[in-house]
Design a protein that fits this description.
Keywords: Hydrolase, Metal-binding, Pyrimidine biosynthesis, Zinc. It holds the Pfam family Amidohydro_1. An 8-stranded parallel β-sheet has the order 2-3-4-5-6-7-8-9. A 3-stranded antiparallel β-sheet has the order 1-10-15, with helices on one face. The chain has a two-stranded antiparallel sheet with strand order 11-14. By secondary structure, it is α/β, with parallel strands linked by helices. It has 12 helices and 15 strands. Bound molecules: N-carbamoyl-L-aspartate (NCD) and zinc ion (2 copies).
């Protein structure tokens, strides 16, 4: 038998599933690999109430193939006007596990996001009391700040003051992309965690321009320099429990990506754990993959670890050039490339 590893079934702590007819094409990829996933609320319109989150979860569950177990963990989209009462309702629903903070205008479908974090401090204090984590898209939107510096500026302008002002709030710094973010997490107490995507572990910003402008390598936060990628690989493979798996798999139709104003987001759900296995293998760190993918996130959220196992084989396979996406098509991360690990 070829080389293989058995690990506890992983969870994806940052995922976009979209809605309506595309759920059928998208949900199975995640359900085949992961036990649970934290589902982002940036639909159009956004998921701002517990009631909407519960209904969205039902639609997702209908798209889970028969015989598969998959538990979508729901989130609420924080706006300037989220009532404190909604946080209590979210907690009581039992299915909403976190609240998502998008700075207004920072990323895909973030127009209803928060205009100034201080405005929502009263709601964040309730969140802290309920013990629910705040998930942050950590980029400033100030047009004077360079695209590549927006995460580092967010740390200074928003995250450090927030950590200081509400000391009991649990925060997940989502899809971190810089050495500065890695260092912040390492030097902050346990209540700050971070997710890391496959694309930010696999590629640096050269990938956006290699052989011509490639819209499929555009996501937010945008890919960074090689030194930052290396810092992320070190963090992910280090065994430090504050770093955990979150794909940020974010499907957009080919037509929306290959456009004069292409959307931000990469789709990785079709081969998510396989991408991470490749990164950990290349770093000589397969021994820490299970903790990063299957333990740290659950521990941070205070949820039980999964009991089931999955097996990954070191057998090359080719990623399809395209996938179905409702009436359109989707270009997946690694389209046409050969990956070294596969799920059986
Ligand atoms: N990551 C992205 O580039 N896009 C995400 C939004 C997000 O996570 O910021 C999306 O919803 O398309
Ligand atoms: Zn984001
Ligand atoms: Zn995202």
């Amino acid at each position: 038998m070829s080389e293989h590893i058995v690990i506890t079934r992983p969870d994806d702590w940052h995922l976009h599933l979209r809605d309506a007819e595309v759920l059928q094409d998208i949900v199975p990829h995640t359900a085949e690999r992961f036990g649970r996933a934290v589902v982002m609320p940036n639909l159009k319109p956004p998921v701002t109430t517990a009631e909407q989150a519960v209904a969205y979860r039902e639609r997702i569950l209908k798209a889970v193939p028969a015989g598969m177990k998959f538990d979508p963990l729901m989130t609420l989209y924080l706006t300037d006007n989220t009532p404190g009462e909604e946080i209590h309702k979210a907690k009581e629903s039992g299915v909403v596990k976190a609240v998502k903070y998008y700075p207004a205008g920072a990323t895909t479908n973030s127009d209803s996001g928060v205009t100034d974090i201080r405005r929502v401090y009263p709601v964040l204090k309730i969140l802290a009391r309920e013990g629910m984590p705040l998930l942050v898209h950590g980029e400033v939107t100030d047009p004077k700040v360079d695209m590549f510096d927006r995460e580092a500026a967010f740390i200074e302008r928003v995250l450090l003051p927030l950590l200081n002002d509400i000391p009991s709030l649990k925060i997940v710094f989502e899809h971190i992309t810089t050495r500065e973010a890695v260092e912040l997490v390492k030097r902050t107490p346990e209540r700050l965690g971070a997710t890391i995507t496959p694309q930010h572990l696999l590629m640096n910003r050269n990938a956006i321009f290699q052989g011509g402008l490639n819209p499929h390598h555009y996501c937010l936060p945008v890919l960074k320099r090689e030194e930052h990628r290396q810092a992320l690989v070190e963090a992910a493979t280090s065994g430090d429990p504050r770093f955990f798996l979150g794909t940020d798999s974010a499907p957009h139709a080919r037509s929306a990506k290959e456009s004069s104003c292409g959307c931000a987001g990469m789709y990785s759900a079709h081969a998510a754990i396989e991408f991470y296995a490749q990164v950990f293998d290349e770093a000589g760190a397969m021994n820490t993959l299970e903790a990063f993918a299957s333990f740290h996130g659950a521990d941070f959220y205070g949820l039980p670890r999964n009991q089931e196992k999955i097996t990954l084989f070191k057998e090359p396979w080719q990623v399809p050039e395209k996938l179905r996406f409702g009436g359109g098509e989707l270009v997946p991360l690694g389209a046409g490339q050969v990956l070294s690990w596969q799920l059986k």
